[in-house]
Specification:
alpha/beta; seven-stranded parallel sheet; Rossmann fold; 7 strands
């Protein structure tokens, strides 16, 4: 049986460890036949990523490219290096997010300018920078799919999410505008709104454990979301099955976001 993504080329940005949503997406894409490339920020994280990639069933010739999402021209260098391996790009997974831990502890009214703008820079503006830099590779492929990750804290208050919510709100707006801008080139741009998953970054948000407990108890599907669940949505967005879907924020939250006020 043919796999959905056989021969597709996907760049995954934002893997921190094997519990990352980005890694769950990467495993799902690989399982459907996609060829993968990854970026990493620091040398130590690159070594860790190499060990993860070695465990993939089809781990031969996987480009691992160093890039700092906070640097304006970093992904132009990624594009040039990737072009030495592939003659085009079909999928970009933007799963990078970063914020000063103090943003998750402070009262919202006391958030500092530098902290909020820093979170927006790395977690949201980087999507524009990546899309622009990688555009020539998408054009060579005749189009493709760009996807990023958000959280339902944009639509309703999640205690402790604080400064990061500004970045996710910007990210969701960018999704719509990039979809309109790049659509004529055959490039679809969407965003996955994942439910609360225990990742390294999420551990700094004090409300995540409570949100997971409530999801298991109250969500229509009565269970928590996993990175593998999000990976399934990513496969859909990367494949031709979603050829008419762009500019969308797609929930992967067991229906939790459809509920109104939830009391303990």
């Amino acid at each position: 049986m043919a796999r959905l993504l056989e021969g597709r080329r996907a760049l995954v940005v934002g893997v921190a460890n094997r519990w990352s949503i980005a890694w769950g997406i990467a495993v799902a894409l690989s399982g459907q036949g996609a060829r993968l490339a990854f970026t990493y920020n620091r040398e130590r994280s690159g070594e860790h990523l190499a060990r993860l990639v070695a465990d993939l069933p089809e781990a031969t010739d996987v480009p691992l490219l160093r890039a700092n999402a906070a640097e304006e021209h970093a992904f132009e260098l990624v594009r040039d290096e990737l072009a030495r391996h592939w003659d085009g790009l079909d999928v970009l997974v933007h799963a990078v997010a970063s914020a000063d831990p103090a943003l998750f502890r402070a009262r919202f009214s006391e958030l500092g300018r530098d902290g909020v703008l820093g979170a927006i820079d790395v977690s949201a503006y980087s999507l524009i920078a990546m899309s622009r830099a990688l555009l020539p590779l998408f054009e060579r492929a005749g189009g493709g799919s760009i996807m990023s990750l958000t959280y339902d804290a944009v639509r309703r208050v999640v205690p402790g999410y604080n400064g990061m919510v500004a970045a996710k709100a910007v990210l969701e707006a960018e999704t719509r505008y990039l979809a309109a801008d790049l659509g004529p080139l055959g490039i679809r741009v969407n965003c996955i709104s994942a439910g609360p998953i225990k990742t390294l970054r999420a551990s700094g948000v004090k409300g995540v454990d409570r949100a997971r407990r409530l999801m298991a108890e109250r969500a229509p599907l009565r269970r928590n979301v996993t990175a593998e669940d999000v990976g399934g949505v990513a496969v859909f967005l990367a494949s031709d099955l979603s050829r008419s879907v762009t500019g969308a924020v797609i929930p992967a939250d067991n229906g939790f976001g459809t509920l109104g006020a939830i009391a303990d």
